Amino acid sequence: MDHQLTMGKIRITSIIGTRPEAIKLVPVILAARKRPDQFQVSVVRTGQHRGLVDQLMDEFGVYADDDLRVMQSKQDLNYVLTECLRGLSELFARRRPDWVLVQGDTMSTVAGALAGFYHHINVGHVEAGLRTGDRRSPFPEEVNRSIATRLADLHFAPTEQARRNLLLESIADEDIVVTGNTVVDALVETLGRSPSRPIAGRCRYIVFTAHRRENLGSVLHDICDGLIILLERNRDVRAIVPMHPNPSVRDVLIRRFGGHDRIVLREALGYTEFLNTLNGASLVLTDSGGVQEECAVLEKPMLILREHTERPEALDGGRALLVGTNSHRIADVGSFLLGESKACRAAPSLSTKFGDGTASTRILDAVLSRTKA
User: Which pLDDT score is estimated for 299?
Assistant: First the structure.
């Protein structure tokens, strides 16, 4: 190891930037704090998705030890990356953790992995190995996750497919651990303390989420048209639309859906409320990676509003379909799935295609084993 362990404890710093990072790293943080004799964990937030991350961390009772506050009005990707890298580099120079944990494919993921590598700190990549094969879809996430792969010391692959992707990129087998996805840990914990129930009075409704950069502009308008046509064909169905805070998304949703008598625009939902809403839906339309996983675990019918998915496991079983962004295809396939599901009811059990809810334990066990080796 590059650094002495503090009183026998492994010092882990977790980097949280966006809400998906929070959802998937908070279970690891909580699991580490249940093992205080082995791990000393700190949390650094970059300041991305501030309101959304605050909301989620409050739900789980996890608070940041450091806040980089990188965001400013009209920032671009270059600014976010450089500010995250600067702040994390300064922090690591002072704190010298034994491990840095990064998750997924955001700018804070890349910055955390780079800063850790530059300071000779071990890097663990949670949710490693996801690939679409198209470097511009999703943008910039596909390249971000590939960069994190080149920098990581341990790769926590959520599925066997993710492991195979890493092996094809010449990552050593002994550096890959198939853990399951920590989103299942978060979902199981949340439903355990607040069992999800269908929303009263809205038995037939669609949940619609959209936010990806490659779907902005005219593409987002096409997607919105798809939902409107779908509702015209299915007059017994409503739609609930939680709005992403990005003004380029939010403004379009308000213009296109505001005033529609069967579309309910909502501010961003808390995690527990969002899971509750998903669990009562008859159909979900989304371009989100995390929502793909959550719907797969809940076994909800879903249209993936993208040309590619890095989560092919979600497509197994035919309840999720990759439909792209053409409005008429969205309406056609959506009508078919609504016809297949005349009553909205929760699945009798959770699917295990993305794990069994113990990914966090496997991650920590792998860190412990590698550190003590």
Answer: 92
Give the model confidence (pLDDT) of 79-124 as tens digits. 999 999 999 999 999 999 999 999 999 999 999 999 999 999 999 9
Determine the pLDDT at residue 197: 58
Specify the CATH number for 205-340; select among 3.20.20.370, 3.30.1330.10, 3.90.950.20, 3.40.50.2000: 3.40.50.2000
Give me the residues of the chain with pLDDT under 70, please: 1-7, 194-203, 341-348, 373
User: What phi-psi label fits residue 75: left (phi over 0), alpha (psi between -120 and 50 degrees) or beta?
Assistant: beta
Q: How many Cα neighbours within 13 Å face the side chain of 178? A: 14
- Residues of CATH 3.40.50.2000 domain(s) within the chain? 10-180+357-372, 205-340
- Does the domain spanning 10-180+357-372 belong to CATH 3.10.20.880? no
Contact between residue 144 and residue 322 where contact means Cβ atoms under 8 Å apart: no
Question: What integer pLDDT is reported at residue 342 of this predicted model?
Answer: 64
Report the distance separating Cα 112 and Cα 151, nearest Å: 10
Catalytic positions: 105, 127, 141, 211, 213, 244
pLDDT of residue 52: 82
- Using DSSP's 3-state secondary structure scheme, residue 338 falls into helix
Nearest alpha-carbon partner for 300 in 347, 335, 336: 347
Question: Do the Cβ atoms of 337 and 321 come closer than 8 Å?
Answer: yes
Residue 46 CB partners (closer than 8 Å, separation 6+): 15, 16, 17, 68, 70, 71, 80, 83, 84, 87, 108, 111
- Please state the pTM of the whole predicted model: 0.92
